[in-house]
């Protein structure tokens, strides 16, 4: 019998090893495919079924990133008013509002054009012959001790601003058409009192660009008749930052007639701009801008 050569023996051994490896690998893969996968144990009767963890809630933007509007300002007034009426501390949301940006629109002239002899602080007239609109807006002037009694800082020389009409509503529009006519036809009643104002405090010797004194904001513009809606009046838009009144935050409420009186509140501000708008077209009719350095540092 012929003995195999060494080379043939090595080839035979190598082939046998490859065959064993192929058979073993196939058996391993076949075993993995046929092996039963572990099954989660069934929950026992009466036991709580685990629930997946809830997804994290989206992070809301910081409240200081948003410009406050009429609704936000009136919410601050409501919180400060309730605190004063109940003898509680001023809420944190009121004091934290110091420095927040705001924008508010005040409707005026809702009863239509004023007479030539009218002395209303906020009024308008329209001349149809030459299509000329005349608007007059005069701020209200208060004494500092009316709000910061008993001893207001000597640095405060003047307080000027505006009453917010109809503070019981979030709307910045004139009342519905016909509401004023119904009021005029009704028997005389107690005139409505003003309860919410927004104003700026001026320091003695400070810049006077935003301070008006006896000088109103006035403008004369050409306006076509179709762009005039007398029943909608006009809007005074004020924008700026809320300014704290001492350590009580930017809203100060008082009850000068006692606990039975509804609190009268003032919102402190530093005005950046004031403009007059036509609500019928959303057109800006006039605009005044002011500098920050005119604010009183309290």
Q: Tell me the strand percentage band.
A: 25-35%
- Helix/strand order, N-terminal first: HHHEEEEEHEEEEEE
Cα separation of the termini: 119 Å
- Tally of extended strands? 11
Q: Main β-sheet, in a few words?
A: 8 strands, mixed
On the 0 to 100 scale, the average pLDDT is 80
| Low-pLDDT sequence parts | 16-23, 293-298
Anisotropy-based shape: globular
Please identify the structural class as seen in this structure.
alpha+beta
Task: Explain what you see.
Residues 51-61 have a biased composition (Pro residues). Residues 37-64 are annotated as: Disordered. Residues 37-50 have a biased composition (Low complexity). This protein is 19% helix and 27% strand. It is of the alpha+beta class. The chain has a domain at 73-182 and 192-274 and 286-294. Strands 1, 4, 5, 6, 8, 9, 10 and 11 form an 8-stranded mixed β-sheet that branches. A 3-stranded antiparallel β-sheet has the order 2-3-7, with no helix packed on it. The longest helix is centred in the N-terminal third of the chain and has 29 residues, at 6-34. The chain is globular and about 65 Å long. The chain starts with 5 loop residues before the first helix and ends in a 9-residue tail after the last strand. Residues 16-23 and 293-298 have low confidence and may be disordered.
């Amino acid at each position: 019998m012929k003995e195999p050569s060494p080379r043939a023996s090595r080839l035979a051994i190598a082939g046998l090893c490859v065959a064993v490896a192929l058979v073993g690998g196939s058996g391993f893969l076949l075993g993995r495919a046929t092996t039963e996968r572990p099954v989660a144990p069934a929950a026992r009767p009466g036991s709580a079924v685990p629930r997946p963890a809830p997804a994290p809630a989206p992070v809301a933007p910081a409240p200081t990133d948003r410009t406050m509007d009429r609704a936000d300002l009136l919410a601050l007034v409501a919180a400060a008013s309730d605190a004063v009426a109940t003898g509680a501390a001023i809420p944190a949301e009121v004091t934290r509002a110091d420095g927040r940006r705001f924008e508010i629109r005040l409707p005026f002239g809702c009863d239509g054009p004023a007479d030539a002899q009218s002395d209303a602080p906020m009024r308008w007239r329209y001349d149809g012959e030459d299509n000329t609109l005349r608007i007059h807006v005069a701020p209200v002037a208060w004494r500092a001790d009316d709000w910061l009694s008993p001893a207001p800082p000597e640095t405060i020389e003047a307080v000027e601003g505006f009453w917010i009409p109809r503070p019981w509503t979030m709307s910045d529009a004139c009342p519905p058409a016909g509401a004023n006519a119904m009021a005029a036809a009704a028997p005389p009643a107690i005139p409505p009192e003003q309860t919410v104002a927004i104003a700026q405090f001026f320091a003695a010797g400070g810049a006077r660009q935003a301070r008006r004194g006896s000088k109103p904001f006035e403008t004369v513009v050409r306006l076509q008749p179709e762009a005039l809606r007398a029943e909608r009046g006009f809007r005074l838009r004020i924008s700026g930052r809320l300014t704290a009144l001492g350590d009580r935050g930017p809203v100060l409420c008082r009850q000068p007639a006692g606990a039975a009186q509804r609190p009268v509140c003032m919102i402190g501000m530093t005005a950046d701009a004031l403009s007059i708008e036509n609500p019928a077209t959303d057109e800006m009719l006039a605009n005044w801008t002011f500098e920050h350095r005119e604010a009183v540092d309290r």
